[in-house]
Prior knowledge:
Blueprint: E1 13-18, H1 24-38, E2 51-56, E3 59-63, E4 78-82, E5 90-94, H2 103-112, E6 118-122, H3 127-133, H4 148-158, E7 163-166, E8 170-175, H5 178-189
Parallel strand pairs: 1-5
Antiparallel strand pairs: 2-3, 2-6, 3-4, 4-5, 6-8, 7-8
Helix pairs in contact: 2-4
The structure holds zinc ion.
Residues 50, 102, 121, 123, 145, 169-170 line the site of zinc ion.
Amino acid sequence: MSYTEEYVGVKFRHVKEGELEFDSSLNEIALQLQKALSELPPETLEGVTGNISARLSDGILISATRSKLKNLMVPQDLSKVVENTLGGDIIRYYGSKIPSSETPMHLQVYQNRPDVRFCLHLHLPNLEKLQLLNRFPITKEAYPYGTWELAREATKALGSNDFVILRDHGILAVGNNLDDIIQKIISISQI
Ligand SMILES: [Zn+2]
């Protein structure tokens, strides 16, 4: 099974606050994301791409719309969403591109989980098998991508776990250590 929901762009309201200035600390985080993605098996990054983010002191850094995780370009494929949007319905961002369509889900996780520093959402090719195994937390309802309903449902099903299946859609892996997240996805992708 592959993820086939039609992409119609972002579903949240958004305001661009300006360009994103990359200082050394932001650059270091960006390169960390890029390096982590390069360690994933290629088949986990095929087709409709997912999204990745990191918590910042004043917001989150997240892959942008129309960026490919297989070949994430720094800095142009990253946007910064500023923290005062948490819980609000307008996404305010800095960067050359609109942040990922799943930004609401990432924001919701960071708001609910102070321990989480990184979030990674992918469309794994073995999703159907993972769902049948009944071994992982899974969302009850399959809400459309990019909605606040999906964001809330994902956060609820995730609970205090570090991994959740978004029913008929993909997976979300979170944690405070990016290497742990990558290792977890590698092992799950081999099931
Ligand atoms: Zn997705």
